[in-house]
């Protein structure tokens, strides 16, 4: 069964969605059961590939290839490398957790789970596509479920509810409504998200089509294209073709990441979405952007990447700072977490921009870590919203009396989000910081500032929600006591802390994906040296660095991290 | 030109589908006359039976690669003609099934409705085979005749009458243009058969003649600037007729356009490519932008149809075999999505009696099946994976990018995003808004069948397109010989980077 693991991961949610079509909404337990078992199959298979992935061998493993269209040169070509594997795992963890987080959805339960499963399956599909066509196929496919999930099960902001009377149906639903007012409504958020992402996705598609055309290979196969495509030095419109393609692909995919000037859809979307959707959205959907940039731009245009990646290094500073400040002043729980996510995605861009073994590995681990941390925070914000029906921080407070378990978990979530030692976020953050220091010291300082900001806004929100005087209006709120309610939180906390204490396997897997990539881009270490280096890593279970990288000493990773962290703060 | 009119049996075989359908038409009329008490849905099933038999015959032709020409090259049966005939028959069958319930609204001549639909289909089958300007003209008018009547079939409805009148006046005008174009082309070249014209020289008379012909065919497919009849006619016509009008004549007219542009005018590609690029860009952009403002679902689909035709013309502008394949593939995807969407419109208007977009509010609660189908059909029209429309659009873009039509592709891609907005507005009404009247909507059996066929087509083509691409590639195989090598040269100004 081993070699078909990717097919199980990808098609179990689709099969679950298909099975749900034939189930009646009158049997909610059956609906939830089917959804949970589909997600469970996916989760087990993801754990299998995560632990079955051989970092010494590296490269793409569990490869599956089926011809799909001969005329267009498309194949359903699936495979994971060290970068895809942890992201696939993160997606299935969040899907599994998300199904339990949305256990109490009463309205159209079946449809909710169908769209949630399709959303997660499409996301997983991107992480394992080795064919440009299918990468785009799954990418675009993940956008539409978001519209329905936001629109049907989402929530309006407080401002919107103040603007409309409950009977004001006429005004709310006119066709021109979107343009006129109500930029705080869930409909607006959903439409903005879809149009924004589609608009940038077609830019990326244009880039993909240009790669297809100018490679002249009549294929979308990423592995063939990265070896054989000759895209350099073709003059076009006063610049070269590879730059145009790179910019199209980079900004096309960076919109979902979201990089600073392209972020505006994201917090609105997070805020409007139901909890499980926010989790998947912030947890893995945003990583589609980074992942696709790595998969398309880094793999196929390594030279151009080296030349143009400083763009990301500049923009990521704005992401970090802007997101952090807005999160600090936001009064809506989900806005805070949403902006904190878009701020934290700046770290990933920093790690990617530095183009260094440590920093890029850190960026990939950060994607995994952030998925867990933000998943927890959104799950708990969702719980608070379900109990109080408000997301307005000033009107809440003192909820720790009513929900001690959730407030306890919230502290852990905040700690993870900040990058407290002991959580996997710490490992990732420190790797990004250490790896980028030589190349981008200014950005690293900004990133440290961003950590302080994170601390500030998350603690501020925590105080606002759980401590201080309690509004008696919410005295009926109760804690997460049932197993189904506690399971997702405990699972994400366990994973976050577990990998924080034992990051080695995760690190090795990620490095096996990052190494050949960075070697191709920077020409610093030949690929051949690599596997040897990794073997050594395996043997003495310590991390040794390649001699070509000057700034990291030959110390175990934990010591490096603690030393430099102490130095930074 | 000499006509050789000694028809042998093997020649008649080529005409067998048309001959059979003509006889069947007479049978249907006779049955209607002889037993007026017969429930009219029996007539519908009778017509569908005949159409299915014809479809089977054509499928047999396709498998055994029957081909040939008749009447001094006026009538050609190649695999592309067979493809378009199957396309038209498929559309006709689905439309007849979708109209069984709707026909009760007609006060008179319910039996003749089916006869007229089949008669139009017969005319369009001849269009798919027409290989010379005269036979194009005759078959075009033959098929349109049926439509003039069908569009104004709701006798007591002013909108329907207006639609018929508008369609008729503009249609006749287009026919006049067409005839004038033929006379100019014949005057300049002395030839009528497409494949004989390949070596002609471009003279002003010839260019004007072909422009007039293009205008007339552009009227048929509803490309901007020949689209002005479309919204009102689609709006006023009985909805099944609108569905028929939005699919079948476009397919038939595209068969002719492909033959004219790729066979007769293959050598002039550097000239006509500008015409197609401009018409395509304007059609897509106009159709999509105006569709945003629509409040009636039929008008929305009318404008979306204009935009879809702009997309199809990208494939025509590519002017290659692959572009040709892409057009056929796109039409298949469009057939299922569009007929399906209109079937949902008919089902909803049977229940509610109106077809404003507002009336779709809460459809997701009133009839989850209809809403879900409509969602998939609209998303397929918008071009969202994993649905057929996405593969169709991508096929066309790939064909065009191989020819370096970057401007056209950029506009096409931007238009996907614009179109998503108005399709999602309908989705918003169906799913996000709560219904005012939550009573469930019931759907009749034949209507369900049509929607299921549409769903199956939309999903299967989208998820596993290989058999369909194989089919379209095979359909244009012989046809590819006519695509002159010079046709692959693109004017340099359209290329960035060379």
Please give a structural write-up.
The complex is a heterodimer of chains A (569) and B (498). Chain A has a domain at 314-569. Helices cover 70% and strands 4% of the residues of chain A. Chain A has helices spanning 5-21, 28-52, 84-101, 109-128, 132-141, 143-153, 158-163, 169-173, 177-180, 186-215, 222-228, 241-254, 265-272, 275-300, 302-308, 310-329, 333-354, 357-388, 404-418, 424-437, 441-466, 483-501, 504-522, 527-540, 557-568; strands spanning 61-69, 74-80, 235-236, 239-240. In chain A, a hairpin with a 4-residue loop joins β1 and β2 (74-80). The radius of gyration of chain A is 23 Å and the shape is globular. Residues 168-182 and 526-569 of chain A have low confidence and may be disordered. In chain B, strands 1-2 form a two-stranded antiparallel sheet. In chain B, α4 (79-99) runs antiparallel to α5 (110-129), α7 (158-189) crosses α9 (230-236) and α15 runs antiparallel to α17 (406-432).
Topology:
The complex is a heterodimer of chains A (569) and B (498).
Chain A: H1 5-21, H2 28-52, E1 61-69, E2 74-80, H3 84-101, H4 109-128, H5 132-141, H6 143-153, H7 158-163, H8 169-173, H9 177-180, H10 186-215, H11 222-228, E3 235-236, E4 239-240, H12 241-254, H13 265-272, H14 275-300, H15 302-308, H16 310-329, H17 333-354, H18 357-388, H19 404-418, H20 424-437, H21 441-466, H22 483-501, H23 504-522, H24 527-540, H25 557-568
Antiparallel strand pairs in A: 1-2, 3-4
Helix pairs in contact in A: 1-2, 1-4, 2-3, 2-4, 3-4, 3-14, 3-18, 3-22, 4-5, 4-6, 4-14, 5-10, 6-10, 10-12, 10-13, 11-14, 12-14, 13-14, 13-17, 14-15, 14-17, 14-18, 15-23, 16-17, 16-21, 17-18, 17-20, 17-21, 18-19, 18-20, 18-22, 18-23, 19-21, 19-22, 20-22, 20-25, 23-24
Chain B: H1 9-14, H2 16-34, H3 40-64, E1 68-70, E2 75-77, H4 79-99, H5 110-129, H6 133-151, H7 158-189, H8 204-221, H9 230-236, H10 239-264, H11 269-292, H12 297-318, H13 321-352, H14 363-366, H15 368-382, H16 388-402, H17 406-432, H18 445-463, H19 466-475
Antiparallel strand pairs in B: 1-2
Helix pairs in contact in B: 2-3, 2-5, 3-4, 3-5, 4-5, 4-10, 4-13, 4-18, 5-6, 5-10, 6-7, 6-10, 7-8, 7-9, 8-10, 9-10, 9-12, 10-12, 10-13, 11-12, 11-17, 12-13, 12-16, 12-17, 13-15, 13-16, 13-18, 13-19, 15-17, 15-18, 16-18
């Amino acid at each position: 069964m081993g070699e078909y693991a990717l097919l199980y991961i990808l098609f179990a949610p689709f099969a679950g969605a298909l099975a749900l079509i034939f189930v009646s909404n009158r049997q909610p337990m059956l609906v939830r059961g089917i959804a949970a078992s589909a997600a469970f199959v996916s989760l087990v298979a993801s754990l299998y590939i995560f632990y079955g992935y051989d970092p010494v061998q590296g490269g793409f493993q569990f490869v599956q290839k089926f011809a799909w269209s001969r005329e267009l040169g498309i194949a359903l070509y699936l495979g994971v490398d060290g970068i895809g594997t942890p992201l696939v795992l993160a997606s299935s963890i969040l899907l599994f957790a998300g199904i339990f987080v949305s256990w109490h959805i009463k309205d159209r339960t079946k449809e909710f789970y169908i769209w949630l499963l399709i959303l997660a399956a499409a996301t997983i599909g991107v992480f394992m596509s080795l064919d440009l066509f299918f990468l785009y196929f799954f990418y675009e496919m993940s956008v539409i479920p978001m519209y329905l999930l936001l629109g049907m099960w989402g929530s309006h902001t407080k401002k919107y509810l103040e603007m409309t009377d409950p009977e004001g149906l006429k005004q709310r639903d006119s066709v021109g409504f979107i343009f006129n007012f109500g930029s705080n409504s869930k409909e607006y958020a959903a439409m903005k998200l879809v149009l924004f992402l589609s608009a940038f996705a077609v830019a990326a598609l244009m880039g993909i089509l240009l790669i297809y055309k100018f490679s002249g290979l009549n294929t979308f196969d990423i592995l063939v294209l990265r070896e054989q495509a000759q895209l350099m030095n073709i003059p076009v419109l006063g610049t070269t073709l590879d730059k145009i393609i790179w910019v199209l692909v980079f900004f096309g995919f960076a919109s979902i990441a979201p990089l600073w000037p392209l972020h505006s859809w994201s917090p609105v979307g997070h805020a409007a979405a139901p909890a499980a959707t926010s989790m998947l959205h912030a947890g893995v959907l945003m990583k589609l952007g980074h992942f696709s940039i790595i998969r398309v731009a880094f793999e196929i245009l390594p030279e151009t990447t080296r030349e143009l990646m400083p763009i990301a290094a500049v923009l990521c500073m704005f992401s970090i700072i802007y997101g952090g400040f807005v999160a600090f002043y936001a009064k809506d729980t989900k806005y805070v977490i949403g902006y904190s996510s878009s701020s934290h995605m700046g770290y990933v861009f920093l790690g990617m921009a530095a183009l260094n073994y440590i920093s890029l590995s850190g960026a990939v681990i950060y994607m995994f870590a952030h998925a867990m941390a933000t998943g927890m925070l959104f799950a708990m914000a969702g719980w608070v919203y379900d109990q109080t029906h408000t997301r307005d921080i000033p009107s809440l407070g003192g909820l720790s009396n009513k929900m001690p378990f959730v407030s306890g978990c919230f502290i852990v979530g905040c700690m993870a989000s900040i990058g407290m030692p002991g959580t996997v976020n710490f490992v990732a953050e420190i790797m990004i910081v250490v790896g980028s220091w030589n190349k981008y010291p200014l950005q690293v300082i900004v990133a440290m500032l961003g950590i302080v900001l994170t601390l500030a806004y998350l603690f501020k929100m925590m105080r606002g929600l759980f401590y201080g005087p309690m509004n008696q209006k919410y005295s009926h709120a109760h804690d997460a006591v049932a197993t189904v309610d506690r399971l997702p939180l405990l699972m994400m906390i366990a994973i976050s802390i577990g990998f924080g204490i034992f990051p080695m396997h995760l690190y090795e897997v990620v490095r096996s994906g990052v190494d050949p990539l960075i070697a191709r881009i920077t020409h610093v270490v030949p690929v051949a040296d690599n596997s040897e280096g990794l073997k050594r890593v395996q043997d003495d279970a310590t991390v040794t660095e390649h001699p070509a990288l000057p700034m990291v000493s030959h110390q175990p990773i934990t010591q490096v991290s603690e030393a430099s962290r102490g130095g930074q703060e | 030109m000499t006509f050789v009119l000694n028809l042998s049996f093997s020649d008649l075989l080529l005409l067998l589908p048309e001959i059979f359908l003509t006889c069947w038409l007479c049978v249907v009329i006779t049955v209607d006359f002889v037993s007026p008490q017969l429930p009219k849905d029996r007539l519908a099933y009778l017509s569908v039976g005949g159409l299915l038999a014809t479809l089977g015959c054509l499928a047999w032709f396709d498998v055994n690669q029957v081909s040939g020409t008749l009447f001094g090259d006026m009538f050609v049966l190649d695999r592309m003609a067979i493809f378009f005939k199957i396309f038209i028959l498929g559309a006709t069958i689905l439309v007849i099934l979708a109209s069984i319930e709707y026909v009760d609204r007609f006060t008179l001549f319910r039996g003749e409705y089916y006869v007229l639909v089949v008669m139009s289909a017969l005319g369009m089958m001849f269009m798919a085979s027409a290989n010379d300007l005269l036979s194009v003209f005759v078959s075009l008018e033959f098929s349109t005749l049926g439509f003039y009547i069908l569009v104004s079939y709701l006798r007591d409805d002013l909108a329907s009458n207006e639609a018929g009148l508008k369609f008729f006046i503009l249609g006749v005008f287009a026919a006049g243009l067409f005839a004038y174009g033929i006379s100019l082309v014949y005057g300049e070249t002395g030839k009528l058969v497409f494949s004989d014209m390949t070596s002609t020289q471009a003279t002003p008379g010839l260019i004007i003649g072909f422009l007039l012909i293009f205008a007339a065919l552009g009227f048929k497919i509803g490309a901007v600037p020949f689209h002005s009849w479309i919204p009102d006619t689609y709006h006023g016509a009985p909805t099944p007729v609108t569905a028929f009008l939005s699919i079948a004549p476009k397919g038939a007219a595209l068969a002719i356009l492909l033959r004219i542009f790729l066979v007769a005018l293959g050598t002039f590609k550097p000239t006509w490519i500008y015409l197609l690029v401009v018409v395509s860009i304007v059609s897509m952009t106009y159709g999509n932008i105006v569709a945003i403002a629509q409040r009636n679902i039929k008008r929305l689909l009318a404008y979306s149809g204009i935009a879809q035709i702009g997309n199809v013309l990208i494939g025509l502008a590519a002017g290659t075999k692959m572009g040709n394949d892409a057009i056929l593939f796109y039409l298949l995807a469009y057939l299922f999505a569009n007929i399906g969407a209109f079937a949902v419109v008919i089902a909803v208007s049977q229940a509610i009696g109106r077809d404003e977009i507002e009336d779709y509010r809460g459809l997701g609660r009133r009839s989850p099946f209809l809403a879900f189908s409509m969602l998939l059909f609209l998303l397929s029209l918008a071009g969202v994976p994993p649905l057929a429309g996405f593969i169709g659009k991508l096929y066309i873009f790939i064909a065009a990018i191989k020819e370096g039509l970057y401007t056209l592709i950029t506009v096409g891609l931007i238009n996907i995003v614009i179109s998503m907005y108005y399709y999602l507005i309908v989705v918003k009404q169906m799913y996000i808004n709560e219904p005012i009247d939550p009573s469930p909507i019931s759907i009749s059996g034949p209507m369900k069948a049509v929607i299921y066929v549409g769903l199956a087509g939309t999903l299967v083509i989208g998820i596993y397109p290989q058999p369909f691409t194989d089919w379209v590639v095979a359909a244009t195989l012989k046809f590819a010989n006519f695509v002159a090598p010079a046709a692959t040269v693109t004017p340099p100004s359209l290329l960035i980077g060379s």
